[in-house]
């Protein structure tokens, strides 16, 4: 399935994880009149995954998020919402499998 990513999303971390690259995207941050530069217009092809693999990854991510959110709450930060997790390939400057974790209510256009 093809998706057009929201061009306003910003990349806040990217790096390798096992056999795939992980890219974290989120809504832009606005500071006064300045707004973070978005990723621009990008169309991706979602790679189908087994439902069991997808659920295991979401559970692993949820456990990590809960631990991080507990620390963030003590520092006065709001916990992150569950991300959209998508497997694709050859995008955002990476070749091969790319795992997108999108923290946004509007990941696509």
Describe the structure.
The protein has 109 residues and is of the alpha+beta class. The chain has one helix at 51-74; strands at residues 2-4, 10-17, 20-26, 30-31, 34-35, 43-45, 84-89, 97-103. The strands form three sheets. It has a four-stranded mixed β-sheet with strand order 2-3-8-7, with no helix packed on it. β7 and β8 form a beta hairpin. The longest helix has 24 residues, at 51-74. The chain is globular and about 35 Å long.
SSE layout:
Elements: E1 2-4, E2 10-17, E3 20-26, E4 30-31, E5 34-35, E6 43-45, H1 51-74, E7 84-89, E8 97-103
> How many beta-strand segments?
8
Oligomeric form: single chain
Radius of gyration: 15 Å
Binned strand content: 25-35%
- Helix-residue proportion: 10-25%
- Mind describing the biggest β-sheet? 4 strands, mixed
Q: Average the pLDDT over all residues and give the rounded result.
A: 85
* Discrete helix count: 1
Which blocks of ≥5 consecutive residues have pLDDT under 50? none
Distance between the termini: 14 Å
Order of helices and strands: EEEEEEHEE
Strand order of the largest sheet: 2-3-8-7
Strand pairing plus helix content: what structural class? alpha+beta
The backbone outline, from C-alpha atoms, is globular
């Amino acid at each position: 399935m093809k998706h057009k990513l929201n061009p306003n999303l910003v990349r806040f971390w990217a790096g390798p994880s096992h056999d795939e690259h992980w890219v974290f995207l989120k809504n832009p941050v606005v500071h006064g009149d300045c707004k973070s530069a978005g990723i621009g217009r990008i169309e991706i092809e979602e790679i189908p995954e087994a439902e069991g693999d997808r659920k295991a990854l979401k559970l692993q991510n949820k456990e990590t998020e809960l631990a991080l959110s507990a620390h963030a709450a003590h520092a006065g930060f709001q916990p992150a919402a569950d991300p959209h997790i998508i497997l694709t390939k050859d995008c955002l400057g990476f070749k091969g499998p790319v795992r997108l974790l999108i923290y946004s209510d509007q990941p696509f256009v």
